[in-house]
Write a structure and sequence with these properties.
By secondary structure, the chain is an alpha/beta fold. It has helices at residues 3-7, 42-56, 99-111, 179-182, 186-193, 196-199; strands at residues 17-21, 28-32, 59-65, 67-70, 73-81, 85-87, 90-92, 121-131, 151-159, 165-169, 172-178, 203-207. The protein has a single domain (15-207), classed as Nucleoside Triphosphate Pyrophosphohydrolase (Alpha-Beta Complex). Helices cover 23% and strands 35% of the residues. The strands form four sheets. A four-stranded mixed β-sheet has the order 7-3-9-8. Strands 4, 5, 6 and 11 form a four-stranded antiparallel β-sheet that branches. It is globular, with a radius of gyration of 18 Å. It starts with a helix and ends with a strand. The relative contact order is 0.25. Keywords: mRNA processing, Nucleus, RNA-binding. Its main location: nucleus. It is found in: Nucleus.
């Protein structure tokens, strides 16, 4: 092991994957009709969750990690719902739908005007989270004693082009949040979003235009 590797805890930075990210002002933002909420309370959400599980089995979600540059720092694009809920763009797969096709469909629905699915470059899966029971929190592992998990969420790196228009439902906001603010900030962003900076540690960001 060379001296450089010892100083970096045994990690060889030359093995890092480089990802281009572009300035926030390279993108355009607009709004469209609100997406109606299916749940009016936590009880409603839980009942719908249980009904869907009984009909279709484990729920599989796919979510996108979208990066931009602002103030010379990498920022994550996050959807804010009802002023207190923060989520990565994405959603539930249809039965038999592939991860890539489902994520493109959901991104088009949440972030595009014409729902053109061809503009999203879905990259590698960064992590998988599991819900072992209906009312438990999600965790980045599946306990060996859990034979029938209720929900699975997969995070994918989605590479943005140099410029693009985002069209967001009126009942949501698309925020750019610095990774340093998100890191381990479970209280505000929840366990999945707050884990994204660590999942991105194997990448080197090439910030274009600065």
């Amino acid at each position: 092991m060379g001296a450089d590797q010892v100083e970096n805890g045994g990690r060889d930075d030359s093995d890092k994957v480089e990802v281009n990210i572009y300035p926030l002002n390279s993108y355009y933002f607009g709004s469209k009709h609100a997406i109606p909420s299916k749940d009016y309370s936590l009880h409603d959400h839980l009942q719908r969750f249980k009904s869907n599980y009984a009909a279709s089995g484990m729920r599989i979600n796919v979510e996108a990690v979208l990066m931009v540059e602002l103030f010379k720092h990498p920022h994550l694009l996050v959807l804010q719902i009802k002023n207190s809920i923060y989520k990565l763009p994405g959603g539930r797969l249809r039965p038999g739908e592939s991860d890539t096709d489902g994520l493109k469909r959901k991104l088009a629905k949440k972030l595009s005007l014409d729902e053109d699915e061809g503009q999203w470059e879905v990259g590698e899966c960064l992590g998988i989270w599991w819900r072992s029971d209906f009312e438990t929190l999600m965790h980045p592992f599946l306990p060996p004693n859990v034979k029938h998990p209720k929900e699975c969420t997969k995070l994918f790196l989605v590479k943005l082009p140099e410029t693009q228009r985002f069209t967001v439902p009126k009942n949501m906001k698309l925020l750019s949040v610095p990774l340093c603010q998100i890191q381990e900030n479970h209280k505000i962003y929840g366990p999945i979003v707050s884990a994204v900076p660590q999942l991105l540690s194997k990448f080197t960001f090439n910030m274009i235009g600065i």
